[in-house]
Amino acid sequence: MSSTRQAKPVRRLPVQRLWPTWMIVATQVGILVAIIAIWEIGADAGLIDAFFWSKPRAIFNTLAIFFTTGDAFTDIAFTFRSTILGFLIGTAAGSALGLSFWWSKNYAAIVQPYIICFESLPKLALAPLIVLVFGIGIASKVAIATALTLVVSTLTTYAGVKAVDPDSEKLFYSLGASRLQVFRKLVIPSCLPWIISVLRVNIGLALTGAIVGEFIASQHGLGRAILYAGQTYDIALVWVAVSVLSALAIVMYVTVSWIERVLHKGVKG
User: Fold this and answer.
1) Residue 123 CA to its chain's centroid (Å)
2) pTM of the predicted protein model
3) Is the domain 73-268 a CATH 1.10.3720.10 member?
4) Which DSSP state fits 185?
5) Would the pLDDT of 264 be above 90?
6) Boundaries of every domain in the chain
7) Distance separating alpha carbons of residues 146 and 123, to the nearest angstrom
8) Are 21 and 201 in contact (CB under 8 A)?
């Protein structure tokens, strides 16, 4: 009887055809151009309030003035330095702190609640205090960016420390390795993928910290430019500063993503 039954057709998994890169980029550019065109036409027709939203033509004119007669390069350099310094200090210090937890479980148990408590604090709310302590210069922006990145790196690295294979650790000791050798040859290499994985998150957090510090008090920076433009109702300048900040964020994110891929290949190799 079973031989007379018709076999059910085998269902195939749906295959999604990936677009080539040029098609994706062209679509993204087309969407951006369409948004700008609709914005310009709507502002000219009175459908969009140009006072509150400005218009692309005015933004492009302000962009040219910003880079020719304004402090564009000074502001970009200031925000870039604050972000990179906070990123490097926070990532390095947080990774070192997370790795240090491997040396003593008692030390880790004592310090970890303080780390969790610091993580739960609204660090951006502490930014005014940090500015008062470190001043309105670059130091306060670096301190805020470091505060945002340090805890993330610490907790991520500590997760990597706890994931170290205990059997491999026992094998190292059975072969006569010292604690320092185990730390250098096993723990650090095992935690490197965890440390690398947090780089892209940290660059965004560092940029956020730098901008918040510039909002509160600063002589330079893209955050200061946005705040000044908002206070003077120069909406075109607000869009210019936001656009430049977005471009800077994309450049840093792409660069860190490339570094992350290179480091991952080095770790696997």
Assistant:
1) 16
2) 0.84
3) yes
4) I
5) no
6) 22-53, 73-268
7) 11
8) no
